Amino acid sequence: SVNSEFQHEYDREPINGIKGEVVSFTVDQLKQFALVLTPAGATPATGWPVLIFNHGHHPSPPDYGRVNGVTDRPGNYYRQVPIAFARQGFLVVVPDFRGHNDSQGLEFTHGLLEAYWYTRDSIATFKALHSLPAADTSNVFMWGHSMGGEVTLRALLALGSSIQGASIWSASSGSAWEKAMHFSLGINATEDELHTEKPAIIQLQNDIDEL
Predict the structure, then answer these.
(1) Nearest-CA neighbor of 170 among 182, 152, 155, 187?
(2) What is the DSSP letter of 66?
(3) Contact predicate 54/155, CB 8 Å
(4) Which of 122, 189, 203, 210 is the most buried (most CB within 10 A)?
């Protein structure tokens, strides 16, 4: 279930004329947050082209986008990339993803299905773009790094021609089963045999059964 509108939360200090705004939206009854960067200058008649920015895996999701413990998304690791796109005339939307920073849903993080859940958040971000007056919703692109590359690929499968193009950097991808096999066997340099335990695959199957 998706609340397909962004709600204004607060404004950020402009960066060289680039407007920063934090918005919220709802996916699967989880309140989530996103950073919106609007380019400097007059808005084109059709609105700014949009870039949805899908970030990579974070080892501690609640600390994503925090600087010295203070919320300052997207954080220093990614800070210059969305700004660079905004300088080139893209309205950039950076969803936190569930469980990251102040977004609800910590229980969905760090599992083999995390990229699947975050894909729902990315798709919900796209569906809420119509509530940004300066956005050209007919001219939307995606960017993804590492795990965000997998999120981007899955979102493209769902959204099809609604996305005009995508740029994927250092992507990690693969089926959940392939990753479970990797974590069960590859990490411990174990060869697969009938009696070999595969805890990641067992956990994956349990997670799927619970769904």
Answers:
(1) 152
(2) E
(3) yes
(4) 122
Residue 156 Cα distances to 55, 69, 123, angstroms: 15, 34, 9
The 10s digit of each residue's pLDDT in 10-39 is 999 999 999 999 999 999 999 999 999 999
Segment among 31-45, 49-63, 90-104, 189-203 with least mean pLDDT: 189-203
Token pair, residue 158, equals 């769902």
Look up the pTM and report it.
0.88
- Per the model's pLDDT, the better-predicted residue between 175 and 81 turns out to be 81
Burial 194-209 (b: 16+ CB within 10 A, else e): eeeebebbeebeeeee
Contact 150, 115 (CB under 8 A): yes
DSSP string, 12-58: EEEETTEEEEEEEEEETTEEEEEEEEE-SSPPPTT-EEEEEEE----
Distance of CA 9 to the CA centre of its chain: 19
The type of residue at 209 is D
